[in-house]
Amino acid sequence: MSGNWRPPSSTDVARAAGVSQSAVSRAFTPGARIAEATRARILEAAQALGYRPNLLPKILQTNRSGIVAVVVGGFYNPYFAMTLEAFSKALTAAGLQMMLVRVESDRILDGVVDQLAGYRVDAVVSALALTSQAAADQLSKLRIPIVTLNSDLAGDWIRSVSSDNFAAGEAAARLLRERGGTRFGFVAGPADSPAQVAREAGFAHGLATLGLPPATRAGGGYDYASGEQAARDLFSGAERPDALFCANDLAAFGVIDVLREDFGLSAPGDVLVVGFDNLDMAAWAPYRLTSFDQDVDAHVAVAMELLDLEAGATCVARTVPSRLVERESTRRG
Amino acid sequence: MSGNWRPPSSTDVARAAGVSQSAVSRAFTPGARIAEATRARILEAAQALGYRPNLLPKILQTNRSGIVAVVVGGFYNPYFAMTLEAFSKALTAAGLQMMLVRVESDRILDGVVDQLAGYRVDAVVSALALTSQAAADQLSKLRIPIVTLNSDLAGDWIRSVSSDNFAAGEAAARLLRERGGTRFGFVAGPADSPAQVAREAGFAHGLATLGLPPATRAGGGYDYASGEQAARDLFSGAERPDALFCANDLAAFGVIDVLREDFGLSAPGDVLVVGFDNLDMAAWAPYRLTSFDQDVDAHVAVAMELLDLEAGATCVARTVPSRLVERESTRRG
DNA sequence: ATGGCGAGTGAATAGCTATGCACACATTCG
DNA sequence: CGAATGTGTGCATAGCTATTCACTCGCCAT
């Protein structure tokens, strides 16, 4: 019997209140012309029936769902939590809802495009390290704006907002040099991440510009375990580095812990360490990690701005400066 | 000109392929009766136009959106990230989409109900510490199933799944006692969290059952800073505890860091510490924290199961056992 | 030869809301 | 007092898809 139950419709309310369906609609539309008495009677009937206007017909007509899809690859990195939090606030403030899509790989994103297009999402935000070009093209064809974070996609209807990863890499080189570093190491993120690539390139360029020897290299992931492994690799050899730039904080934590536990080394006592993301944890006592703050709020603000650029079918790329937050891990003595 | 652009509809495809709209619909409906040749011609035309079936009309008729709303209070706690990740996987596997809603307070949840109801979400999952009874009632009225996590809501169409918080509190008391604790302390979470209340009550009951003195108490939040403050409060007095049960891991980390930095105390050397949630970080070298694992996957599996209980208008509450993961922080000597 | 049958297709419709248009009525102004 | 203005309401429709119903056309069996 409850199998064919339906939520009350505006027609049901109209019948209950003895008015037409359009009157009900007007009662729920701010600024619509309706007598206050009628309106009150309708709201009363609606309340009694538990009526809520169905948003779908409106969407069907206007093709504006009020939904923005946010695509992420996983949540293990607190940086994504920060991004999600900021986006959530911004979207709510703009009266939009967030559809959260988690994809294992970019191949699967292609499959998800059908769904997103089917729900007529107003826009897609991709926090994926690597966003599928094919998927982006499909969305472009449907004129669904897409904003990528720290990616390097190109094409119509595609906007991107990134940190100044290259410049930050250079800045890291300068800082480590100033603080007394002589043998440099780089703890890498995943090779397919454009941010990782830019940070490493900037670091290398910074070292070269200062006339310093290139950095030894280890790692290959944005996670804690990658950092652990990188530290073991870098410090098992004879020529141990004394200044490290890590592709992100999570890896830096792994590095610092292994240095302390396995090698009895401390930061900054024996090794200078710089991270990236400025997670909350970077300020915690065991780490006090110098790190580049990506200014998530600014990223999101720019992203929201780019989403609003309805007309712009041209490719837009914006860069948000990151801010160096120096803590104990680079203060020697 | 692009102001009134509309994505291609099935009618557009039909025109292009020289068939009727129903044929197009059939071409995209698995198992529908259509000649293979026609189907191929339609798919070709659809491909050329970039057609994707609009899901909204179907939703309008069936009242099944394929969307589940997940309501959270924030993302600062990695525990929510774990939950979100697990839910995301489970929903994807079930062919559902996740609408993520972040609310500042439960009052705002009331306002959000209109939206959720308007989108005709199939169900609501609330990971809120405190879920508004009023909001839940509204959803019940619309026959939208609601599942709360670690909450103690009651009513029709409301299901809840919780950890065995009370039992875990008792277990914590037994463990700390066995490991040599004599003066006990409890680092509390927020007072309005049912999980916090149950954990504290279980701990108190456990201590009493063992004939031990009651625990001193500090804290009042699930975050790191709360833990820091709690440690300062608990260890500034003359009678310092030597065994702590923390309402969650994040607070426990704050406790451990302050003990080490400000008081020169170590866990487990000077103080035994038990946390709750078993975050990834609990295994990290500076902490090696004994913690109760809430088994997020099991929580989510049960939640998904409860969502499927379409018929059940009765209130269902399920408990998932948490698993004690013992690490160095409670191993003395 | 003819009734029956299955496959393939088109026409029509349900589902719900917002809104343009038309109409009825009241009020005000010349 | 007639006209004009304004207010409040109902009618009809668009928006898109899945699905039911009806129809046609081969084909087989009787």
From TrEMBL, chains A, B:
One of its GO terms (molecular function) is transcription cis-regulatory region binding. The keyword Hydrolase does not apply. Keywords: DNA-binding, Repressor, Transcription, Transcription regulation. SMART domains: HTH_LACI. It comes from the Bacteria. Signal peptide: none annotated. SUPFAM superfamilies: lambda repressor-like DNA-binding domains (SSF47413), Periplasmic binding protein-like I (SSF53822). InterPro entries: HTH_LacI, LacI/GalR-like_sensor, Lambda_DNA-bd_dom_sf, Peripla_BP_I. Residues 8-62 form the HTH lacI-type domain. Pfam families: LacI (PF00356), Peripla_BP_3 (PF13377). The keyword Amino-acid biosynthesis does not apply. CDD domains: HTH_LacI, PBP1_LacI-like. PANTHER family: LACI-RELATED TRANSCRIPTIONAL REPRESSOR (PTHR30146), RIBOSE OPERON REPRESSOR (PTHR30146:SF95). This is LacI family transcriptional regulator. It comes from Caulobacter zeae.
